[in-house]
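debug: dumping io for the single-chain case to check the tokenizer round-trip. Nothing else runs in this session.
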Amino acid sequence: MSHSKMTKLASLCLLALLFVLCSLLLHVRAEPNTADAVLLRGEQRGINWRPPKNFCPPHEIYLRCTNSICCEWKCGTRGRRYSCNRKWKSGCFCAAGYNRNQRNKCIKERRCNRPWNPAVDYEPLIPKRRLGYAGF
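debug: decoded output
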């Protein structure tokens, strides 16, 4: 092959590579970048998507809801399930044996009738890094 043919071939390959890279970048930028958008696209396509096990807070499980079947017990409802009439969306619900309290946490059923106990119900705020003042 002559030098001019090699140069033309290299130029064409470089242009093709740039075209592919640009189209990929444009596609990625056009896609929404939120988890909600990903979930919505999956549900629209009929994909049974489930989050990883550590997606929900402690004592909660992920439920994919249809036809208002997702209900949970709530402290203070005296044996009635919490508002099943609303159309629920898929999400995290209290696991079996746990009720949602006034602070939106899932606590053991027997804890509902007791007053708030800081030793059990309080989650201390622990700084993730030292702030450099006041002993932190």
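debug: round-trip ok. Residues 28-33 have pLDDT under 50 and may be disordered.
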